[in-house]
Amino acid sequence: MTASRAIGCFNPLHVAMMAFTAMPAMAMADECVQEKAIYGDMDDAYELRFEPVGSEAAVTSNRFKFSVRNTSVVADGIVMRTDDQMRANGMIMFNCPEGDVTGADIRACTVWQGMIYASDMAGNISALPMEGADAAARLFLPALGPSIQESAIWGKGKATVAPWDVLTLKGCGE
Predict the structure, then answer these.
(1) Does the predicted model carry a pTM greater than 0.85?
(2) How far is Cα 64 from Cα 52, in angstroms, rounded to an integer?
(3) What is the pLDDT of residue 31?
(4) Which of 12, 26, 108, 127 is least enclosed, having the fewest CB within 10 Å?
């Protein structure tokens, strides 16, 4: 196959899946619990940093900050489990109003919403680990990049690079 023909067969889905399964292993996944895990995208433009939930566990099972590197943009993230605990529905919100808010208010400040999937280094997919469990090696947030481009965190002085949907464990917080 010629180089030009190989380029003509470019499929973004294949590139995303290769990024999801071909990154170097990180031994820290076994040394870090999920509520302290720090993830980054392959362009080093974003950071997702989990925080302990503590007494709020009845409302959410995980909480995180999602920041756009080299800017002051920091969005809040929560993960709510389904009743059977098998699925983790995540939301990233930016500058949401406090107090009595409407569904329209929440939709306006939501950057991304969807299922968060975890993966080990072999590419085995699972639910996002709960607090106290070993951190996932990778996270998959479907359609994260396009959602950011349509959100309030996109634009001049904010996010200008759309991330891939896969974030890789890069550290463990205090």
Answers:
(1) no
(2) 8
(3) 85
(4) 12
Give the mean pLDDT of 75-90. Answer: 87
Q: Write the single-letter amino acid at 171.
A: G
Q: How many CB atoms within 10 Å of residue 24?
A: 6
Q: Spell out the SS3 assignment of 75-119.
A: EEEEEEECCCCCCEEEEEECCCCCCCCCHHHHHHHEEEEEECEEE
Q: Which residues pair with 172 in a beta bridge?
A: 37
103 touches 96 (CB < 8 A): no
Closest residue by Cα to residue 164 from 25, 36, 39, 54: 39
Classify residue 167 as left (phi > 0), alpha (psi -120 to 50) or beta.
beta
Residues 101-124, mean pLDDT to the nearest whole number:
94
For residue 126, the enclosing domain spans: 3-172
**Total domain count, the chain:** 1
The pair of structure tokens assigned to 160 is 């200008």
For residue 11, the Cα-to-chain-centroid distance in whole angstroms is 22
Q: How large is the average pLDDT for residues 117-141?
A: 94
